[in-house]
Amino acid sequence: MNETKLARKAVKGNQKALEELLVAHGDQLYRTAFIYTRNREDALDVVQEASYRAFRYIGNLKNEEFFLTWLTKILIHCAYDLLERKNKEIPNDKLIELARIKKDKREEHLDLVEAVGRLEDKYRDVIILFYFRDLRINDIARMMEIPENTVKTYMRRAKAQLKKQLGGCEYNDERLFSRRV
Questions:
Q1: pTM: predicted TM-score of the whole model, two decimal places
Q2: Residue 119: what are its φ and ψ, rounded to 5°?
Q3: Which residues contact 18 (CB under 8 A, 6 or more apart)?
Q4: 128-146: per-residue pLDDT in tens?
């Protein structure tokens, strides 16, 4: 059955239809959650919380065509909630160990997922939604509730920061120079 019809049924209260939609998008939701949390258990917790909220608030979905966009927005909020809770739960005796680990990580070469994780939230969201979720710019703009040109600006700035972090170019006095001649 087509996704829009399933979403329509789910909005009307059909829990089986919502369950089918969640199962169909489960892998994609997990991958997105993992990009944010970088931890299997936390990613599963985020997906579970997003699924719970979807069951609870499916009646608030205004346009069934944008079910996946709506669900992804819930997932991102759940990921931020979890990360915020995790930051508050760090015991004092672990702070010294974390400082040492962070220093070691700075000295190592960054991979793409770590580099994306270091971006500001707004830039990270745009990169994840565009490159990892394959959403179009207008869908991202609608999801983030910002103009399309702002999405493009965030994308350009995020890519520049990623280039700088990953060593894809030389960084000199605020200008980027490609290594290619």
A1: 0.63
A2: -70, 160
A3: 6, 10, 54, 55, 58
A4: 889 888 889 999 998 889 9
